[in-house]
Structure formats: C-alpha cells, structure tokens
Description:
Helices cover 55% and strands 19% of the residues. By secondary structure, it is α+β, with helices and mostly antiparallel strands. α1 (3-35) runs antiparallel to α5.
Amino acid sequence: MGTSGERRVLWQGLTALSAYVLLLNTVNIFSILRDAPGTDPVVPVVLEITSFLAAPPAILVGWFAFRLAPPDRTPIWRSLLVHAVGAVTLSALHVSLFVILRKLVFGALGRSYEFGSLANFPYEFRKDLVGYAVGVATFWALTRLAERNDTARAPAEATQEPPRFDIRDGAKLIRTPVSEILAATSAGNYVEFHLADGRRPMMRISLSALEAELGPHGFVRTHRSWLVNAGQVRELRPESSGDYRVVLGPVEAPISRRFPEALSRLRAGL
C-alpha cells in the first residue's frame, strides 16, 4: 500500500473514530441528564464536547504508534513497548487538551473548572486505553482491507492488455496496438495505415467503417481521406489556405476547414 493508500486509511479511520467518539459523548450527555435530573445541562454538555474536540489530535497519536508497530508485523516486545508509550501519550494529550478547553469555555461563561490532582488521571487513562485499543484495531482493519483490495485489483491490472486492432493486409494479419497506429488514409477501396514503426500496411475497408471502429479509441476524422490518432498528435501547423497540417511524428496529415470539430478537439489535446 503506497503513501496515498496510507493517507486514505488515516482519513477513513480518523473520520470513523471521531464519529464514534461524538456518538459516545452524546449518549453520555443524555445519560447524565437522565440519571441526575437536577444537573445544570451546561456542565455535561461542555465536558463531553470538549472531550470530543480533544479526541482527533489524540487519535493521531494512535495512528503514528500503529504505523511504527503494526500489531501483526512487528516483534511482540516492540509492539508492547510502542503501544504502551502510545496509550499513555494519547491519554496525556487528550486530558491536557480537554482541560485547556474546559478552562477556556467555563472561564468565558464566568465559571471555574478544576481537573483536580494527578490522582484523577488513572480514571481518564482507563477510558482512553479502551479508545486507544479501538483506534488501533480500526486502523489495522482498514489497512488490511485496503491491502486486500489492492491485491485483488493487481492481477486484473497486470493482465489488462492495451487495445489492439487487426489489420488484414492481404493474406497477412497484423495485430497491432491501437496506440501505434498514427493515422490512416483512404486509398480507393482500401485504407493505408501509418504505423509508428514506419510500416504502411493496407486493408480493404472504407475509412468510414474504420472510423466507427477506432473512434472510441481517440481517432479523429480530419479530412475526407484522413483519420488520425489524437493521442499521437505532436503539432498543429497553420497553412496560408486556412487549413492546418497535423504532425504525428514522421507523418503529416491535413485538417480540412470542413472538419472544425476535429481542429477544436486536437487543439484541446495539445
């Protein structure tokens, strides 16, 4: 899984965990008001909202610890050490942030807030420890899911071949990638192909029928006798007559004024 995949897992996990914390804190507010009817509703609301606002930065600690020591990919001693430090750091950051926020909010409301002594920290740590475990498990599950999707997608991408076109030149069959066909020009009842390697095979087919087959692959009709590969255009060269020449490597094809849409499309592709 590359850097973009890791960022996707981070944002998915951060979003899911933040939603989980918000739901949990909202339930806590209603539980407190139900269990203690005389409670001033401002107090639990401020306590739970500040706890929620302090959660995302703390969740990032869990993410970095997970990246340092994925539980199933590092020695057990390393995982235990990293995640022990990570859990304490997460809780310390979470508590510090919500205490600061509560002091600011209650101060703005003309009230005071005191967290109390450090003896209260183990209580908060026990709650944060559960959240830490949920967070690491979430990041682990999202990472495994992303890797499984990448693994399932890789064989399909590896086996996918570029589109090809069969040129029947007399008794010969030339199966060539569409990207290597620079242009095709009408030659009576035949069409002459201009290939990137310099070959110019001919096939009995009308240019209109060929356009119907190659049009979905980016080929554009620029003249009643020419069909060009828009993906191979290197230059558009104006002529004194008002027409243009389109340069496709060693091949040059005309662009007639009767095909203004072709000129607009090729200009947009340069």
